[in-house]
Design brief:
Helix 1 packs across helix 2 and helix 2 packs antiparallel against helix 3. It is built from 3 helices and no strands. The protein has one domain. It is mainly alpha-helical and about 60 residues long.
Length: about 60
């Protein structure tokens, strides 16, 4: 696997170990994306954030 894949796997493992902090980061990234696009892609960012949370096993969602 290349460097990017290795980094992604490392990030996923860290997120699994610290899901609360990872949830805050995902929520922050989602908020920034929504702000910069004027919420034009809100449904897509919600879906992407949920997919990321599922990838590291987070059951909860963090309110923006």
């Amino acid at each position: 696997m290349g460097k990017l894949g290795d980094m992604a796997n490392k990030a996923k493992e860290l997120a699994k170990g610290h899901p609360d902090q990872a949830d805050k980061g995902v929520a922050g990234a989602e908020r920034v994306a929504d702000e910069r696009t004027g919420n034009k892609y809100d449904a897509q960012t919600d879906k992407a954030a949920d997919a990321v949370r599922r990838s590291y096993g987070s059951g909860g969602t963090t309110e923006r």
